[in-house]
Amino acid sequence: MQLQYLTYFVAVAQTRHFTRAAERVNVSQPALSKQIATLERELGATLFSRARGNITLTAAGEALLPLAQRILADVDTATREVQELLAQLRRGRVRLGATPSVCTGLLPTVLRDFHREYPGIQLVVQETGSGDLVRELSAGALDLALVIPAQGGPAEEGALVITPVLVEELIVASSRPQRRHQNHAAHRAACGCRTSPDCRW
Amino acid sequence: MQLQYLTYFVAVAQTRHFTRAAERVNVSQPALSKQIATLERELGATLFSRARGNITLTAAGEALLPLAQRILADVDTATREVQELLAQLRRGRVRLGATPSVCTGLLPTVLRDFHREYPGIQLVVQETGSGDLVRELSAGALDLALVIPAQGGPAEEGALVITPVLVEELIVASSRPQRRHQNHAAHRAACGCRTSPDCRW
DNA sequence: GAATGTTACGCTGTCCGTAAGAATC
DNA sequence: GATTCTTACGGACAGCGTAACATTC
Predict the structure, then answer these.
(1) A13, A111, A117, B117 - which has most CB atoms within 10 Å?
(2) For A47-66, what is the mean pLDDT?
(3) Alpha helices, DSSP H only, in chain A?
């Protein structure tokens, strides 16, 4: 099954005329005729009753028409929706908060990549501590904040949504041989992974 | 836009894996990969975030998925509905009544053609006068009757639906020169055509 | 013979599979 | 080095347009 078939089918059904349908879909009349024949063969059903100068839909054609129209409309909607989404993604403003360590270590690369992909998005970055960031987020002064969660792992904070993004290993360097910091195992158990599935860093 | 694109797109969206999606739709992985790329180029939007071993939908992909699924489901429904309709058309019974003149002149050819196209339809033909036919039709003993309408042309008869099918010229043959029967002009005016648009005889 | 749909035929573009490449773990 | 996605390339096939044909008015 091809979308083209349905386009041609609907054109003929609406014009009740092969030649005029061909003009409407900008194709030669024999090409359209053949595609309709292919569709009919594929369905195993005659779709049009070809009386000279009086093309009408058969029962099978009547059954197909509404679905064909809906399918074509959906295809149109699909492309349009994606386009509209892109248009929205291409302009706007994001107020992002982050801790000093994040701002120094991770943000520069991420912001560069983001700006390259969405040059129309205005980025406002605020650098302060995790506590302040959460408060400003709650107050609506920020859209997004990269914070270091309190001991015990991520948890819901009122109306805020928290998504684990990155788990870092903290290593104790010492002059005496020593095991890795025990919190590491706890972190992995809490998060289930080293890097969140949503994280592209 | 091709339906194939949407099929491949949905497969990748559901498996979150190009290789496994390719297996599911029975195509080589590079072929699928290329089609997805074509779809993305056509929409002007990236649909998947390709992180190694962690394919996820982008916002555009999320927007497209439900519509793509609906379109594919509709295509499936369309073919199935036509098939079911055909199955119904292929078996059944029609009780047809007709006047003696119709049974003699027109029916044989029509019945032969009809039976050739719908060999599974059982045809029961009853031959009697127009009055009786209408009565039996009203009583539900017939499904269809070919009658000669009362003078004055076709009209609604209770719950019956009447469709003009054929207008015949009646010629007076005489030893003296004479005009065509005057009713002929009246008939044409009433019916608007010599043969009804629905008539293939 | 004019109008209209179908069949025939060669051409082009699209899609496919195999093979090679690139990137990540 | 194994896995996984992308790029390259040659072949097969579907769809197109022109032309010829068939049919009906």
Answers:
(1) A13
(2) 90
(3) 3-15, 18-24, 29-43, 59-89, 100-105, 107-117, 130-139, 183-191
